[in-house]
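Chapter summary example: a protein plus zinc ion.
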Amino acid sequence: MSRITVFDYPPGAHQRRHGPSGYADYASYRDWLRDDFCFRCVFCLRREQWDRRLAAFHIDHFIPQHADPSKGLEYGNLLYVCASCNSVKGELAVPNPCDVNYGECLQIRDDGSIEALNPIGRSVVGLLALDDPDATRYRKLILDTLRVLRTGDDQRVYEEWIRFPSDLPDLSRKQAPAGNSRPQGIADSWFARRVRGELPRFILINKRIGTINADRAGLAFRNQVEMHEGRRGSSGGMAGRHPRSVRRRLIAPAPANDRTIRSDGRSEQLFHPRHGGRALCAG
Ligand SMILES: [Zn+2]
């Protein structure tokens, strides 16, 4: 059985797909940030689905407001983080996950412990106390629970823990007062994907996809997607599930470039090898 991957860091620095501006208060950027950061804390990968959202998730000013008031309402300075990471980070200069590939720096073991893979990783772990016994216990609890749920009879509860939130924000209806510098990101939002019937069933990350060659990466990614996701497409949801042996046949052979063929025959860009892999959320 494949391992639980909810604590695998994305294989690249986070690349923002939205660029709203002009709101009078930073809280108004929340839905943009939720979508951009895939409903998880960018630092520790804790998910909305695992908590009461408003209490558990904050908006962090990467550069503190008092240090540079001009960045207080700048979308590119805002991160979606959990309350724990936000309180620990404070005004510390943590390596920016939008500049640094956390996937190359950090690895969560199956027992919930964290390993720093390089000096930047050691800095992140130290500054955010990600090796704190309570943080390790929390990750272990999540991983153990998911393992039990996955192998148990109640598949529904397991899926509840790794699925997307139900209230995906429809960003196309939001009017950022001063516009949106990345309007193309709207079509790539999770809500838009759901409308098109392309929302993955679960939020998954395939670590290190960018560090192996394109064909192998594409194959590994599709294997993981098919295992967890079943067939995407018009049916969607639970109706799209197939036994693993059947699902495997739904996936086309690996293409030579960085696009893969979905089960419905359309191609889909997975990552940019040039950039060492793009942060992916199972889509
Ligand atoms: Zn966190």
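Key point: The radius of gyration is 19 Å.
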